[in-house]
Amino acid sequence: MSLDQRRQLVTQLVESSRILRNYIDHRAKQRGTTRAQWVVLFRLRAQEGLSQVDLAEVLELQPISLVRLLDRLVEQGLLERRHDPRDRRANRVYLTAAGRKLVDDLDELRDAIAGDVLRGIPDDVVATSLATLREIKERIKALSDADTGVVAK
């Protein structure tokens, strides 16, 4: 593979990522949510009861940014904060019944987006692409750690 093709691949990854984020943002807005809210809700479904600090770390968000996002989700009745019984200063975050229902409904939308975006692409190509993207992701994380001391998650 030529250097030009490698550059094109990186450029396509960056551009495709941006376009996909915009497409997901548009589809999320139609459901009255945001992509940022999806990320929080999906993570909490997988790891309910995380502390706000741990959730911010897992999501790679600044704690203050997460607090504002959590405030909106609490106001919407989608999640609740509970005091950590082991640390009075900390809160743990849990989905409400409405939040759980929304995440389940968003699964359908996530499946529809994946179907739309990957329509016509053979399964073996998707599998190979997924393996390649995971390898690229791990390489970027390793380079970030080695070169700058910054952890790319």
Explain the overall architecture.
With 153 residues, this protein is mostly helical. 71% of the residues lie in helices and 10% in strands. It has a two-stranded antiparallel ribbon with strand order 1-2. The chain is globular and about 55 Å long. The model has no long low-confidence stretch (mean pLDDT 91).
Q: Any descriptors?
A:
mainly alpha, 153 residues, two-stranded antiparallel sheet
Number of helices: 6
The amount of beta strand, in percent, is 5-15%
- Biggest sheet details: 2 strands, antiparallel
Shape: globular
Structural class: mainly alpha
- Our Rg estimate from Cα atoms comes to 18 Å
Oligomer: single chain
Total strands: the figure is 2
Helix and strand pattern:
HHHHEEHH
| Order of strands in the sheet with most strands | 1-2
* Average pLDDT metric: 91
Query: Distance between termini?
Result: 28 Å
- Contiguous runs where pLDDT drops below 50 for at least 5 residues: none
Helix content: over 70%
